[in-house]
Amino acid sequence: MESLRERPWHCHARGEFIPLSKNGAWNVCRGWIQLSTIAVTGEERILGWFGTSAWLSTWLTVHSAHQAKALSDTVLVWYSRAEIENSPELCQSLLPQTGKQLRQIESLLATLKHKRVEDRLYQLLHLLKQEMGEPVAGGIRLAARLTHEDIANAIGTCRVTVTRTIGKLKQQGQIEIDPLGHLILRQIGMGYSTVKLGNG
To answer: Which of 7, 48, 149, 199 is the most exposed place for a label (fewest CB within 10 A)?
Structure first.
């Protein structure tokens, strides 16, 4: 396979949208990307997050109404569909990532089975901890900086509710926000019995 250094690099700043095509796929070299789709109601629905080594393309999906947004400064390399189909090495690299994406979507759907927003948020933070958690002093830091709007779209609620619920978690000492705006999880993932997410 051709070295990544020999291919053109495509850079996108945080907040920029990345063009998707069925004619090929992006390979993520650095950064985090959020994939979402627009529901028939016009609401955005989060489908997952992609970090280093992940593959991103509408070629791999049934529907093409997806959008990809850089959550950080991102570096990508483009491969055409023909290149991938004719390269066993590229196919071998892509298949595990596709399976991981499907499992991530299943996990996101599982969060929506909970009626209480607090429980949905707990499940989402636990998923994010697994997907992009980085150990730091005092907890686990999420590598990508998510807005309250991003979180709300992932769990099917509004931004105001997410802001209020995160505020409660901060007061309880379960999470904090670092100077760059990244969430640091302190107790998330220890179980419902030790996480006080209720309204009381």
So the answer is: 199
Domain-terminating residue out of 42, 75, 100: 100
Whose structure tokens read 């000492």?
173
Residue 111 lies in a domain: no
C-alpha to C-alpha distance for 178 and 171, rounded to whole angstroms: 15
Interval 80-121: pLDDT, tens: 999 999 999 998 888 887 788 888 888 998 898 898 999 999
The CA distances from residue 58 to 18, 24, 98, 129, in Å, are: 12, 8, 12, 26
The reply to whether 33 and 96 lie within a common domain is: yes
Q: Which of 150, 165, 153 is nearest to 117 (CA)?
A: 165
CA–CA separation, 168 and 166 (whole Å) = 5
pTM of the model: 0.82
Looking at the DSSP bridge assignments, the partners of residue 77 are 27
Strand partners of residue 67:
36
Say if residues 29 and 75 touch (Cβ distance below 8 Å): yes
Tokens (6 digits) for 36? 């979402």
